[in-house]
User: Fold this.
Amino acid sequence: MQRLLLDQDIKPMSEFRAHTAACIQQVQKSKRPVVITQHGKSAAVLIDVAEFEAMSQRLELLEDIAMGESMIDEGKGIPHEQAKEMILKRISR
Assistant:
């Protein structure tokens, strides 16, 4: 995801309502999120669908890594060679 540009990517709710299509086009073209404010405070973030999917996949991978690390810390891990053997058995079926 591209870095947010404060002077271009923060819109008050009134501007978003009046120019919704333009805001969506901006997000799709720039690949940067748009922060929508309400009463001077951030209220929502509009992001491109592809960027959202990529971000969701990265988050899921990070959660899987964290779960694996905590399982290892709890002594629930298995040695690399044993895991490799298990995977090769499943693949060869």
About this structure: The beta strands are 10-12, 34-38, 41-46. Residues 29 and 48 are 9 Å apart (CA to CA).
